């Protein structure tokens, strides 16, 4: 698991860690029961504060992506398929809003967009 932090990002460091680990879990790269790096080890690897890493892990646990076993570490939680589905739906909605914005700029109609989507589906 590689986590890359960007000083240019508008997202705080703990948010970047949260988002990247969450994406690893949703994509299946991290599976149920996989152990995450310890808070201290991750902080050391990323050269950031332990407090920042702990905050990211706390938020991941609060949202149900990971769980902590006292004295043992943090692990990927069982996937809540409804939670993952909601996450994907939110991402799709975001992409659709961007498509809508770009379509207006390009003066595309609803039918034009549907036709583009149909062509893309046939290509796959």
Under CATH, the homologous superfamily of the largest domain reads: Winged helix-like DNA-binding domain superfamily/Winged helix DNA-binding domain
Assign the CATH class of the largest domain: Mainly Alpha
Task: Please give the count of helices.
Answer: 5
- Structural class based on helices, strands and sheet pairing: mainly alpha
Provide the CATH architecture of the largest domain.
Orthogonal Bundle
Mean pLDDT: 92
Q: What's the main sheet like?
A: 2 strands, antiparallel
Largest beta sheet: strand ordering: 1-2
Question: What general outline do the C-alpha atoms trace?
Answer: elongated
| CATH fold call of the largest domain | Arc Repressor Mutant, subunit A
- DSSP strand count: 2
Straight-line distance between termini: 29 Å
- The string of secondary-structure elements, in order, is HHHEEHH
Which features characterize this protein?
single chain; 124 residues; mainly alpha; Arc Repressor Mutant, subunit A; two-stranded antiparallel ribbon; 5 helices; 2 strands; elongated
Helix and strand topology:
Elements (H helix, E strand, L loop, with lengths): L12 H15 L11 H8 L3 H13 L3 E4 L3 E4 L4 H26 L3 H14 L1
Antiparallel strand pairs: 1-2
Helix pairs in contact: 1-3, 2-3
Describe this structure in words.
This protein has five helices and two strands, in the order αααββαα. The chain has 124 residues and is mainly α. The protein has two domains: 13-76, Winged helix-like DNA-binding domain superfamily/Winged helix DNA-binding domain (Arc Repressor Mutant, subunit A), CATH 1.10.10; 81-123. The mean pLDDT is 92. The protein has helices at residues 13-27, 39-46, 50-62, 81-106, 110-123, and strands spanning 66-69, 73-76. The chain has a two-stranded antiparallel sheet with strand order 1-2. Helix content is 61%, strand content 6%. A hairpin with a 3-residue loop joins β1 (66-69) and β2. This is GntR family transcriptional regulator. InterPro entries: Tscrpt_reg_HTH_GntR, WH-like_DNA-bd_sf, WH_DNA-bd_sf.
């Amino acid at each position: 698991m590689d986590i890359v932090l960007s000083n240019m990002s508008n997202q705080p460091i703990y948010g970047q860690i949260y988002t990247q680990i969450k994406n690893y879990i949703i994509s299946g790269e991290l599976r149920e029961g996989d152990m995450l790096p310890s808070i201290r080890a991750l902080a050391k690897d990323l050269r950031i504060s332990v407090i920042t890493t702990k905050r990211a892990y706390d938020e991941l646990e609060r949202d149900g992506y990971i769980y902590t076993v006292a004295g043992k570490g943090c692990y990927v939680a069982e996937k809540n398929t409804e939670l993952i589905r909601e996450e994907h739906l939110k991402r799709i909605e975001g992409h659709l809003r961007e498509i809508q914005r770009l379509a207006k700029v390009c003066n595309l109609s609803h039918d034009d967009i549907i036709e583009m989507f149909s062509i893309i589906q046939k290509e796959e």
